[in-house]
Automatic annotation (TrEMBL):
Keywords: Membrane, Transmembrane, Transmembrane helix. This is Uncharacterized protein. The chain crosses the membrane at residues 5-24, 30-51.
Length: 78
């Protein structure tokens, strides 16, 4: 999966660079497709890949997690 994300990232980056570097009739389309590919393919794949085995509740700031953090840091504000 990591290589698929890298592949799409390289393709979108090349598309944007070619759109800016070459003066073609479809340069703006290359830039647009590169940006769309980045935001609708690369970012969601990367987010899914990084978060697939993690529990989002561990990263939410609720009363229980704040108390755990304060207990670990030795804070007396409970």
């Amino acid at each position: 999966m990591k290589y698929i994300i890298w592949f799409f990232f390289i393709i979108t980056l090349i598309s944007v660079i070619c759109g800016f570097a070459f003066n073609l009739a479809y340069s703006k389309k290359l830039i647009g497709y590169g940006v769309l590919g980045f935001f609708f393919i690369v970012i969601p794949l990367f987010s899914w890949y990084r978060w697939k085995d993690k529990n989002p509740k561990d990263y939410m700031l609720n009363k229980e997690n704040l108390d755990k953090m304060r207990k670990r840091e030795g804070d007396k504000r409970r």
